[in-house]
Design brief:
By secondary structure, the chain is of the alpha+beta class. It folds into 3 domains: 313 residues, Alkaline Phosphatase, subunit A (3-Layer(aba) Sandwich), CATH 3.40.720; 66 residues, Arylsulfatase, C-terminal domain; 149 residues, Sandwich (Jelly Rolls). The protein has a 10-stranded mixed β-sheet, covered by helices on one side. Strands 18, 20, 23, 25, 26 and 30 form a 6-stranded mixed β-sheet that branches. The protein has a 4-stranded antiparallel β-sheet with strand order 14-15-16-17, covered by helices on one side. Helix 6 runs parallel beside helix 8 and helix 7 crosses helix 8. The longest helix has 26 residues.
Length: 577
């Protein structure tokens, strides 16, 4: 049956009209840009009264944002990031500290990226990860479509350095924060909705910054470290200006939620609003940071009730109207009711835990809107934050019942939050499509006289001290699928030696007859650093081993304990089957 041409035209017109109306009625999903900086304190902004610093771009963002007067994080980097990514207290995620795999988040934890990705968002992370180096504990394994940055706690050089792009090593050009900003802009310059996380590596040490920024703050009479830090912060400010300019000029700004925050207190004693404590401390100065959230359509306001990193993901889920599985347990809650002016907000406790190398119940802290209790090995301090937020007067003697009640709450929380234990997960190998696995020195355990070159074993450190047969190191491995690997080592040595690798009864002996020297890479530090300097390490082939599907320890030692000046940066596993 044929229809008249006029009727067909009317049908076509009706379909086009209906389709256009339908598309107009469905608002595009809001984008999310999350900016977090590294070791920038509450006082490292002109918005918070710092008379030396100039941060006009961040100040402008704050003037357009919901500003939380008291926003809390954890005392150090990796714990804060774990809580931010999951909405959960970091000990429950497996992340307890910053190195020796204590920074690794369990793969079953559900991140912001894993929640937004099924909702049609492209997810990208640019900068610092610090939740695990190897898949599936890396960004790709935790929901990010694209990762460009570094997985360790810090880099050794911020100019023309080496980064990871998904699973490949790439070279960056110029000053790293500038490079990251441009790459993030490229990621956002597409039509699909995005979740972009920019994790700037600054102002964390090493203290490297372009001359124009350093010279400006030296001219103000500051010492080299503070001039470097403030120069790094002003560089961050310039890059935030570039991000906001892109969002404005691309027409995306009014459909983008923009969050700015930092990960802990300042990495040194400098202006911080008079608050007690710095990075690594439980006090206000160690964990209270800037938090600005620009929500399209929401006017600027300052909110007095406290909020924290555990609240960010629940808030985004609420804002974006996303239903999450009831199996996901958030420890924070949406702060959207506060943004919308709710007067029925109930106070609650916020808990803090910190590790000093060895995991223990303390140091810890518990605070609410009025009181703060810090619990150390040899002392307890109680403060009334409403009348004494600078923590001048310890009121434990006058309030024994309150102290006992808050301490009990903290210990009950600690017991619940560590119910899964705190032992770091093993390094997984054998995943399909993952052909390269690095086993760095800080991920291993050491025995005998082996020690770290930099003593503490921060990111990028290496092993020294192989002078007896009992001197050995080992990595905890879990093979998910039988695989054969070619094993190489980043090492240096001054004399011939025999290296022995042992793996669940299998032994691989490698004879190294030539000397190898790791050469230091020049570093433009403004201040002598406390960590090791970066080197170019020779890669020495040791042989092949078949790794079977089971937990195991991969042990490295020297035969007969030859003292050949052996230094080991990492093992590199390359799949060959």
């Amino acid at each position: 049956m044929k229809f008249p041409a006029s009727f067909c035209f009317l049908l076509l017109f009706a379909w086009v009209f209906f389709s256009s109306c339908q598309s107009e009625s469905i608002a595009p999903k809001p984008n999310v840009l999350l900016i977090i900086t590294d070791d920038q304190g509450w006082g490292d902004l002109s918005f918070h009264g710092n008379e030396f610093l100039e941060t006009p771009q961040i100040d402008s963002l704050a003037s357009q944002s919901i500003v939380f007067d008291r926003f809390y994080v954890s005392p150090v980097c990796a714990p804060t990031r774990a809580s931010l990514l999951t909405g959960r207290y970091h000990p429950a995620t497996g992340t307890t500290w910053v190195t020796h795999r204590m920074e690794v988040m369990r793969e079953e934890e559900v991140t912001i990226a894993e929640i937004l990705k099924p909702e049609g968002y492209r997810t990208g992370l640019f900068g610092k990860w610090h939740q695990g180096k190897q898949f599936p504990h890396d960004p790709i394994g935790q929901g990010f479509d694209e990762f460009l940055g570094f997985t360790d706690g810090h880099l050794n050089n911020y100019f023309d350095t080496k980064l990871t792009h998904n699973f490949e090593q790439v070279d960056s050009k110029g000053y790293l924060p500038d490079f990251m900003t441009q790459k993030a802009i490229g990621f956002m310059d597409q039509d699909t909705p995005f979740f972009t996380m920019i994790a700037f590596n600054t102002p964390h040490g090493p203290f490297q910054v372009p001359d124009q920024y350093f010279d400006k703050y030296k001219a103000k009479g500051l010492n080299d470290k503070d001039a470097s830090v403030y120069g790094m912060v002003e560089n961050i400010d310039d890059n935030i200006g570039k991000l906001m300019t892109f969002l404005t000029e691309s027409g995306k700004l009014e459909n983008t939620i923009v969050i700015f925050m930092t990960d802990n207190g300042p990495n040194g004693i400098r202006y911080n609003g008079g608050m007690k404590g710095i990075k690594g401390h439980l006090d206000e100065g160690g964990v209270r940071v800037p938090f600005f959230m620009r929500i399209p359509g929401q006017p600027h306001q300052v909110i007095k009730p406290w909020a924290a990193h555990i609240d960010v993901l629940p808030t985004l889920v609420d804002l974006l109207e996303i239903e999450v599985s009831p199996d996901i347990e958030f420890h924070g809650k949406s702060i959207l009711p506060l943004v919308e002016g709710s007067r029925e907000w109930e106070d609650r406790y916020f808990f803090t835990h910190h590790v000093n190398l060895i995991f223990d119940t303390i140091p810890g802290a518990i605070r609410n809107q009025r009181y703060l209790l810090t619990i150390q090995k040899d002392r307890k301090e109680l403060y009334d934050l409403e009348s004494d937020y600078l923590q001048h007067q310890n009121i434990t003697a006058e309030n024994p019942e309150l102290l006992a009640e808050m301490e009990k709450e903290y210990l009950n929380w600690f017991q619940k939050i560590t119910i899964k234990g705190t032992e770091p997960p093993a390094i997984q190998v054998g995943h399909a499509g993952i052909t390269f696995v690095e086993l760095p020195a800080p991920d291993a355990k050491k025995e005998g006289g082996v020690k770290f070159k930099g003593n503490m074993g921060w990111a990028n450190d290496w092993f020294v001290g192989f002078s007896a047969e009992s001197d050995q190191v080992y990595w905890d491995i879990e093979t998910v699928q039988d695989s054969e690997y070619e094993i190489s080592a980043q090492l240096s040595n001054t004399a011939p030696l025999e290296i022995i690798l042992e793996l669940n009864g299998k032994t691989l002996e490698a004879s190294i007859q030539e000397s190898h020297a790791a050469e230091i890479i020049p570093s433009p530090d403004r201040v002598p650093r406390g960590e090791v300097y970066e080197k170019n390490w020779p890669l020495v082939l040791l042989g092949k081993l078949r790794l079977e599907k089971e937990p195991m320890e991969l042990t490295l030692r020297t035969k007969g304990g030859e003292d050949a000046g052996l230094e080991v940066k990492s093992l590199i596993l390359k799949k060959v089957d």
